[in-house]
Design a protein that fits this description.
By secondary structure, this protein is an alpha+beta fold. Helix content is 43%, strand content 16%. It has a 4-stranded mixed sheet. The longest helix is centred in the C-terminal third of the chain and has 19 residues, at 174-192. It holds the Pfam family DUF3109.
Length: 196
């Protein structure tokens, strides 16, 4: 593991390759799972604020769920997550003309309607953050639906931390990311010398 400030970064984030391949997975990570996307406290309010901007892109079933229970709920672990439809689909999803599941919030952001990109847990995926009393664990969540992303990452040779540069900077800041890159180079040198 590598520690940068109060974040403990798992080594597989700097060693494993990954590039999302939406043409292969069709956005399945926004559909499958036991609950919605994890949310930070202030993100529930941001979702409510952006809701009118994305409402027309949401399915009637998603609109019905939001009208009944809101944009988020507490899952079985007591964590706030995005509301879901049919026991799995995030309410903020829509399907493009190729059948790829995409985020309506990200679409609104790309169209210049909001400066909120999407929940940070979605932007960081496959990285998952786990907060402890004195540190935050930065882990790689391995999931069968991302097999194509691993294959594409291996083909292109792009590490997880490189692929997720923008969301890592969004979460931790540019200085933090630069420190991570320095630590990665030191780690590589030590590994080449057989010191670790």
């Amino acid at each position: 593991m590598i520690q940068i400030d109060d974040a403990i970064v798992a080594l597989d984030i700097i060693e494993e390759n990954f590039i999302c391949d939406l043409s292969a997975c069709l956005g399945e990570c926004c559909v499958e799972g036991e609950s919605g996307a994890p949310l930070e406290r202030e993100e529930v309010e941001l979702l409510e604020k952006v809701l009118p901007l994305v409402w027309d892109d949401l399915s009637p079933a998603a609109q019905e769920v939001i009208e009944k229970q809101g944009v988020a709920y507490k899952d079985t672990d007591g964590e706030m997550v995005t509301s879901i439809v049919n026991g799995k689909d995030c309410v903020f999803t829509y399907y493009d003309d190729k059948g790829i599941c995409k985020c309506a919030i990200e679409k609104a952001h790309r169209e210049g309607k909001t400066d909120f990109y999407k929940p940070i847990s979605c932007h960081l995926y496959p990285i998952r953050l786990e907060k402890y009393k004195t540190f935050t664990a930065v882990n790689y969540h391995r999931w069968r639906v991302c097999k194509a992303a691993v294959l594409l990452g291996n083909k292109e040779g792009l590490k997880i931390y490189q692929f997720l540069k923008t969301p890592l900077i969004r979460k931790f800041g540019e200085a933090w990311y630069n420190e991570l890159c320095i630590a990665v180079e030191e780690y590589k040198k030590m590994k080449e010398k057989g010191e670790i």
